[in-house]
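Comment on the following before class.
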Amino acid sequence: MAKTNDIFGRKNVKHVVDSETVEPVAQAQADASEPTMAEVMAELADLKRQLANKEASKGKGLRVSPKGCVSVYGFGRFPISYYKSTWKALFAMKDEILSFIEANNDALPEKGEKKPVAKS
């Protein structure tokens, strides 16, 4: 007897037995563990709803991480997370960062643009 999880994460016990030796009651119990079409459709609708909620919440946002960092979501695949002291130091450098970006504008493409070829 091997224990596995089905596609819905439920515990499922698979039996390898000869169908002639299975009692009708045991066969009925085995059939009862299989999901009905209505259950499968309800599960599918629930998963679609969860996916829609996840897609809708993909915008930019702020959270406090479990380690106490400020995490900024929505600028890439992973959040940008720093402790508050690092954020304050970064904001103190705002003018320096902006002037650096302006000074190096030709070497810094926008997201989605190709990097300019260096002239020799």
About this structure: The chain has a mean pLDDT of 80. Residues 61-107 form one domain.
